[in-house]
Specification:
Layout: H1 19-37, E1 42-43, H2 45-52, H3 56-64, E2 76-77, H4 78-88, E3 95-100, H5 104-110, H6 114-117, E4 120-127, E5 136-137, E6 140-141, E7 143-144, H7 148-155, E8 159-162, H8 166-178, E9 183-186, E10 199-202, H9 205-228
Parallel strand pairs: 3-4, 3-8, 4-7, 8-9, 9-10
Antiparallel strand pairs: 1-2, 5-6
Helix pairs in contact: 1-4, 2-3
Length: 231
């Protein structure tokens, strides 16, 4: 639990917040929403930390960056903290998203219902394959990627998700930037560059699997050590 009084409008931090902190805030939000669905009115920092795999001190530290939340002896108001975290994470507005790449990954993302629940609306899917352009995939008519800039002048997308081959990633970024997109989520296995003012978030699925592989190998090694010491 945290001292002080709740802050209905979280104050912006003086400096950019580290990505691990942002990821924890996103996790806290999902956990709080689950609590809210169960009808819980309050939650302590200890409960939130236990569910999030961290410590109550870390929870309090993460939230204190944005103001004072909760009341001593009562914990955090679930609904109030949900509203604050949504504002902190920029979820209080709608974000218009285009997906470039109508392959399996791109179309799976286009049909993911969780985006809309978070305020992300996929407005178009693009590709450069003549056999895909004009076809209806997952409820979307696949557009020609060469029309991205023209379409953007009318539809004003905020975010572009790249699900293209690595050798097409940079040219696709350049096209998205020319279209006025300022946020890019990159699934392509390539390092890409963008001018100042454009934010790029990379999703490296191979790296995530390697992290998982390391954790599994470590657990197996520990199990082997325990087995060798018994008998």
């Amino acid at each position: 639990m945290t001292p002080g009084h709740s802050s209905p409008h979280p104050s912006p931090p003086a400096k950019r917040i580290a990505q691990p902190t942002v990821r924890r805030l996103s996790l806290y939000l999902r956990l709080l929403e689950e609590f809210d669905e169960r009808g819980a009115a309050t939650i302590s920092s200890h409960e939130l930390a236990k569910l999030g795999g961290t410590t109550s001190a870390q929870v309090r530290k993460d939230l204190s960056v944005f103001g004072s939340f909760g009341k001593r002896g009562l914990g955090y108001g679930v609904a109030e903290l949900i509203a604050a975290l949504r504002e902190i994470l920029g979820l209080g507005r709608a974000w218009r998203v285009v997906i470039v790449g109508a392959g399996k990954i791109g179309m799976a993302l286009a049909q993911y219902s969780g985006f809309r629940r978070r305020g992300f609306t996929v407005i178009a899917v693009y590709d450069n394959d003549p056999t895909k352009i004009g076809a209806t995939e997952g409820g979307f008519v696949v557009r020609d990627v060469t029309h991205l800039e023209r379409d953007a002048a009318r539809e004003h997308p905020d975010i572009a998700i790249l699900a293209v081959p690595a050798d097409r990633a940079q040219e696709t970024v350049d096209r998205a930037v020319r279209a006025g997109v300022t946020g890019i989520l990159n699934f392509a296995a390539a390092r890409i560059r963008a001018p100042r003012g454009v934010t790029i978030q990379a999703v490296n699925m191979a790296a995530e699997l390697e992290v998982l592989s390391y954790a599994l190998a470590k657990d197996k090694a520990k199990g082997g050590e325990r087995g060798a010491g018994s008998g």
